[in-house]
Amino acid sequence: MMKKRVVKAIVPLLVILAFLFSAVPVMAEEEEDGTGVFTFEDTEYHVYYVGSEIVDSELNVSIGGFGSTLQIRNGKIMIVAWASAVVDGVEIDSYQVSTSSDGIYTYLLETDQLPEKVLLYPVEQDEPIVLWEGEPGTAPAGSAGGSEEQEEETGDAADAALPAEMIGAWHGTGTPKNGGPSIDLSAVIEADGTGEYVFIQDDYTESYPFTISNEDNRFSVDIPEDNYLGISACGGTWEYTDGILKLDITTEFAGGGSYSYTAECEKEEAEEQPAEDAVEEPEEEAPAAEDNEPYDIVLRTLQDGEILEKGFAGEAAGALQELLGVFGEDVPADGIIGQATMKALHLLQEEAGLDMSDVLDAEGFEQLMDSLRN
Description:
By secondary structure, this protein is of the alpha+beta class. It has helices at residues 13-22, 141-144, 148-159, 293-303, 315-326, 339-351, 362-373, and strands at 28-30, 35-40, 43-55, 58-64, 71-73, 76-78, 81-87, 90-99, 105-109, 117-122, 129-133, 168-176, 183-189, 194-201, 204-213, 218-221, 231-241, 244-253, 258-267, 308-309, 359-360. It folds into three domains: 13-159, no CATH class; 164-267, Calycin beta-barrel core domain (Lipocalin); 287-373, Muramoyl-pentapeptide Carboxypeptidase, domain 1 (Orthogonal Bundle), CATH 1.10.101. The protein is 20% helix and 38% strand. Strands 1-2-3-4-9-8-7-10-11 form a nine-stranded antiparallel β-sheet. The chain has an eight-stranded antiparallel barrel with strand order 12-13-14-15-16-17-18-19. Mean pLDDT is 77; it is low at 1-28, 141-147, 272-279 and 286-291.
């Protein structure tokens, strides 16, 4: 597996020359167990191991002390360090990282076992910082109590927690500030402040992950570099009052110019089944006939020329999620095809011996259902 330890940034020529002639190394050193310090671009980071857990059969390693180090340069997000872990004597690299406003990075690693050692690689050096080493599952000594600075940071994180009523699925409409067609906006907000939204305006649809913070009531969108419209940055502010989530959003483009709109969203409450209607049914096998309602909904939508892919929202997305659940994949039934739904689809395609695809048409759907039922 390739280690993700490279940060790409465009730097003026004079700065490059100054760096080459000064030859100032990036310093990294280990402190007490569970903590470390390194320098990146004249900024010193005192990092500490928060802990590890297994989520959805993957190892999540959390490391704090990064503060507000999420930097965006020329439309690229810069991560100053990547984590790896040693499991059964084998070092495994992280392949993805999520950030939060409390300065804690959570790294994802492809293993379902807890680590015996946690390492951190600052991006401009090869030698890692050994943040923690011990029996798998034991608490890191440097993070349980931590320094006063770490405890203060943890307290700030608690103060920055989102209101509980904001967690969940939202839907509403947006109005462009300079005029234009109305916007349909859906979003799902997780407890850790991350989420994903779906923006629909006429025939254009986009869906990207975002991070929302209680600190200064701001949010930012994680825009990929190769996005279709050449978006360089997207974010804004939010306000929650009397059950209405109001968003003030600005999108900036690499070629210059910006697009701003406001949106008001209401929370989508899950429908509760009346107690008297709840009937205990015997365990059923996977759907086997075309009269299955979720099957019919998905197939009818695809036969009408639609394609199910990431960002698709609606009844067919919810029906697909229900079918994935029948075949043993635990995905949120929110009616929006996001990362979790695509991952479950890929797993079932692999199980059925089919090529994994990010788009699902009528032919591919019928092949998948036939293979899973046989």
